[in-house]
Amino acid sequence: MAETTTPKKLRITLVHSALGYSYKHKATVHALGLHKLHQTVEQADTPQLRGMLAKVGHLVKVEEV
Questions:
Q1: Residue 57's beta-bridge partner residues?
Q2: CATH H-level, domain 9-64: superfamily
Q3: CA angle 20, 57, 51 (to 5 degrees)
Q4: Strand (E) positions, the chain?
Q5: Are 56 and 28 in contact (CB under 8 A)?
Q6: Residues whose CB is less than 8 angstroms from the CB of residue 13 and which lie 6 or more positions away in sequence, other chains included
Q7: What is the tens place of the pLDDT at every residue in 24-45?
């Protein structure tokens, strides 16, 4: 039998404001589901998510769950 593995989750917290950054950075933060400072969301760890985090890594804090 094949074991079912649950995908890894990442806990993402917005720690710096996106004000003063480009529209693309603001849109990426919004697409991550972050709207307010210190708001935290959990997302499944995917290559697409990792690319988004690489783009706005200076604005967010990422933890593995």
A1: none
A2: Ribosomal protein L30/L7 (3.30.1390.20)
A3: 115
A4: 9-14, 40-44, 60-64
A5: yes
A6: 38, 39, 40, 60, 61, 62, 63
A7: 999 999 999 999 999 999 999 9
The one-letter amino acid at 42: E
Mean pLDDT of the chain: 94
Cβ neighbours of residue 42 under 8 Å, at least 6 residues apart? 9, 10, 11, 12, 65
* Structure confidence at residue 34 (pLDDT): 98
Give the residue extent of every domain in the chain.
Answer: 9-64
Task: Kindly tell me if the per-residue pLDDT of 5 is higher than 90.
Answer: no
pTM for the complete prediction?
A: 0.87
Q: Which residue, among 45, 58, 64, 62, has the nearest Cα to 16 in the 3D structure?
A: 58
